[in-house]
Amino acid sequence: MVNADRIARFPTSVKKGERYSIEVRRNPRYQTCGVTEGGEGVVSSAAPPTAKVVCEDLKIDPLALPTLPVVLGSISGLSASGLHLQLLSNDGEVLETSIVPSTAKSFAFERAPTVSAGGSVNGYVVVGQQPVGQACEVLGHVGDLPETTLQVVCHRVSTAAGFNLETTSIAVTVEEGEEPAPQIVWGSVVGANAPVTFYVEHNDAAVAWAGARQARTTTSGFIWFGLKAANYNRSPSPGTYKDTIKVYACYDTSCKSQVPGSPKQIQVEYTIRRETPPTPLSVSQRAVAFTQAPGHSRLSHNISVTPPSGSDGDWIAETDAHWLNVFTDTANGVLSLNASPAGLSTGMHYATVTLSSPGHPDNVSVPVKVGLFVSTATPASELASGTGASKTSPYYMQRVADPLRPWLYVPKDKQVLAVNVYSGQTERTLTFDNPVWQVLPSDDGQRLYVYDSQYTTHVFDGERLELINRYKCNRLDASNSTGEYDGFPLMLQVRVENTAYLVQSNCHGTMFLEPDTGRLAGMMNGLMGIDRYAVSRAGDVGYHLLSRWSGIRIGHRLAFRKTASGEVYVLTASDYIQWPSTQGLSDLAVVLSGDELCGASTGSTIITCVDGLSLKYTIPHFSIEPDALVYDVEASDADVIYGAIYWGNSGMAKIKRLDRRATAPAWTDVATVMAGPYVKPGEMRLSSDGLRLVFDQLMLSTP
């Protein structure tokens, strides 16, 4: 198995004068590969034979946003003519037949099948005619498109008498986090005097499932099986596992009458290899917001810096703006930023601080964006009319703060408003063809992602709010076979080795995407039933919580990783965290370091902060009157936490504050405000400079 661009060597030697042939047995996901040079020949004494394999991406233009999917896939192992592929409707009608040449490495149908109201495709692909001397089968199903997972695999049919398998042993090695492809062992029966059925048994140290599929002739077929995924909490740990698959070729369902040579065994050896990638130069946050306004000033901030592994620990920082000074403390890993607004005009000013480690062989630079808002106007106490929190939208349509600017993004049906938390006025309005589901600014403030009800992601430049790109996912219906999350829409940003990825659900499970293009970078498997996520400011630590019938929520701390081939995956970095029993969990926040998780629990009417590895309460949690509800919790980049508590009968809301930097952290009252007759999660938001709290229409200054 080859999982990246490299030189690969076969373990089996060949002698001088022997003929050899090299073919691609299995294409990687979303690619088609072929031998372009040295695919066959005779071994000479001059040099070992070499071959060249070239792979190409199977692409669908994301900007085209097709109404109907294109049915296409890859072909491997085909060496003979005569293969016919057919596109059938769910009713069995032949929509199109493709006659495939022996040299083909991929296929496509020009005619598109219909799509159900839920988004699944009404059709499938079958082998209509087998090639001469070979048996082929289609893996995957059309409903998985537009991600191209269809594969046609072919193999030569044995002519030996009785029941035969092409091999009796398979060894597979994967890197931790890599999704192992289904394994196939071809079998054939020669000289059968009646129809034959294959039956399979297996143990399960490594094998997750196994089965047999007959080709259209009763004399051939294949055994295929899946190995346990080497990611998330369902995975086996790194190591080597051995299983045995027993295969029967039978004339009857009780398998009392078997074909000569039956049963046969396949020995499976499965190795999961753990790679320890080097730690890159990293920072605790990618954007810092400064402000100079009447009664409000934030002009300094410290960022934690982790030097790359393999370095001497030294790093440097440089700024491109005259008004921003930087100071480095490499011994303690602290970058200090200080802004000097004197002489600057009113409005937004931007700077980039570039960190690097010159003594490291890779010396990859890391940018930190800094925004400075200068204003001479007295801050308003309320938002302009029509910019408050929606009283009817679901929780995932919360208002969110821009990490670089004094803006609050407010989703309003088919619009997104960028509202200034000092003036209260709308700076920009973005309008869409469909209702907006979720708004997400990138952690460095350079992008804004908007996800709408038609599963389209719109990518905007963060400063100008101009459209850069858009891409769409054709969602499967609720009965999709992936078994993954199919509930509320989800969009988060994480970072793996300093590269940003979107985590997005409600398409084909939960996926890692390249943010600007929507290209699939990996699957976030095993997260069925998740109803809350949270990610640290650095994007390298995440949390999820799952609902249970008892009202208790359990979850994990998550670590985001990447394989050598670039596939992003997630591992659980903790045992189960059991959240206190509650009737509802309305909001989550991760503290600056990423090591603690805070949640607003409506049923128990508390705000609880626990460390990310156990149930240890790291700071005091508070409980309030029985008829109160806790709806919001916010964490600033200065390690201050705010919580909002609402009394439904009185219409009043109390805002509390806790400074985690204090010697003895304790909750203190900030303000009591009139919330009105109805309140929902997302009412209270904290500006990115930590100086302004917005509660519905009301704007407050923080202590």
Written overview of the protein:
It is a single chain. This protein has 703 residues and is mainly β. It has four domains: 24-30 and 58-273, Immunoglobulin-like (Sandwich); 282-374, Immunoglobulin-like (Sandwich), CATH 2.60.40; 473-579, no CATH class; 582-703, Neuraminidase (6 Propeller), CATH 2.120.10. It has no helices and 56 strands. The strands form 15 sheets. A five-stranded mixed beta sheet has the order 22-21-28-27-24, with no helix packed on it. Strands 41, 42, 43, 44 and 45 form a five-stranded antiparallel beta sheet that branches.
Q: State the fourth-level CATH superfamily of the largest domain.
A: Cadherins
Number of helices: 0
Count of domain modules: 4
Give the strand tally: 56
Uncertain runs are 59-69, 144-148, 474-487
Q: Please state roughly what percent of the residues sit in beta strands, choosing from under 5%, 5-15%, 15-25%, 25-35%, 35-45% or over 45%.
A: over 45%
User: Which architecture of the largest domain per CATH?
Assistant: Sandwich
Structural class: mainly beta
Q: Please write the CATH class name of the largest domain.
A: Mainly Beta
The neighbouring-strand order within the major sheet is 22-21-28-27-24
Give the overall shape: elongated
CATH fold type of the largest domain: Immunoglobulin-like
Query: Into which percent range does the helicity of residues fall?
Result: under 10%
